[in-house]
Amino acid sequence: CQLNSGKSDEQEDETFKCIDCLSGVAPACFLCNEREGDRIRCIVPACGKHYHSDCLLSWPQSHWQGGRLICPYHVCHTCSSDNPQDNRSRAPNERLARCVRCPSAYHASTLCLPAGSLILTASQIVCPKHYKAPHPPLNAAWCFLCTRGGSLICCDTCPTSFHLECLGINAPDGGFICEDCETGRLPLYGEVVWVKLGHYRWWPSRICYPQEIPENVDSKPHEPGKFCIMFLGSNDYYWVHRGRAFLYQDGDANIKVPMGKKSLMDDTYRIALEEANKIHQQLKATRSKTKEPKGLKPPSYVKLKVRFILRFILERMNKRNKSAFFLTAHQ
Length: 331
Description:
Elements: H1 19-23, E1 40-41, E2 50-51, E3 63-65, E4 68-70, H2 77-82, E5 96-99, E6 105-107, E7 118-119, E8 124-126, E9 153-154, E10 161-162, H3 164-167, H4 179-183, E11 192-195, E12 203-207, H5 215-218, E13 227-231, E14 236-240, E15 245-247, H6 264-291, H7 309-329
Parallel strand pairs: 5-8
Antiparallel strand pairs: 1-2, 3-4, 5-6, 7-8, 9-10, 11-12, 11-15, 12-13, 13-14
């Protein structure tokens, strides 16, 4: 922090020192901005940020090497969330864009940058976590693991909902943040998401890249942190925040149009489902080519991104239990 005062050699040599060096104590925690308590310094030479160990508990991107901290500022949170046990990233040769308000970091390309980010410079952003939506999230009325309703715990920042027993946790004392929101896996440009407006059903939509938003849509007033989506099937545009959108996943291709009297809305919805699955599969194929370097073995761990997987497992277990009971009873 020393800076030459600009005086000549004949003048008294003076230097500038910041408040941390003058006080002789470690800088404040980068997360809570408090100076009390023991703080841990990131070992990356160009970083120098300090953290309370308790503050890092909600940042799973931080990791330790030989008991020394490498803080969340030095890993892409999108790549880390998609594959937590594999260090390979989606864009290994690309620089990180870091949030100026928290330790969130993402590859600067649209492959990893969350939709709704405010780009300040080539390496500095304000991530969508810092924008407060005018309304609370529109949480789904079903569990995102077993797809059943009932007593649910809802994420405070996105529409996801879960049964406590499906998550295997006790009821938290305060608010609840889902895994994707905690690990920084936010919706990305080009991805398919489910969006709900008013009394309409959850509708498959695509997040538009900034450069492809029509001028008349881009000129409409929209709050910071919102991103533009295009409703598939109808090609209508709208600005939404992440409290009204959740990611499309592989299991969503099995959703069927409700039976009964058909309407024009149902026909449009059927087209939207077909388009959503096609775009999702194309995006997966593109990313798999980008992420997998040649000559390397596939990762030993793959994070499942399929809804309904728990319900499928439970149904299979119930069938096996019934079969075992039938065989035992007739032996």
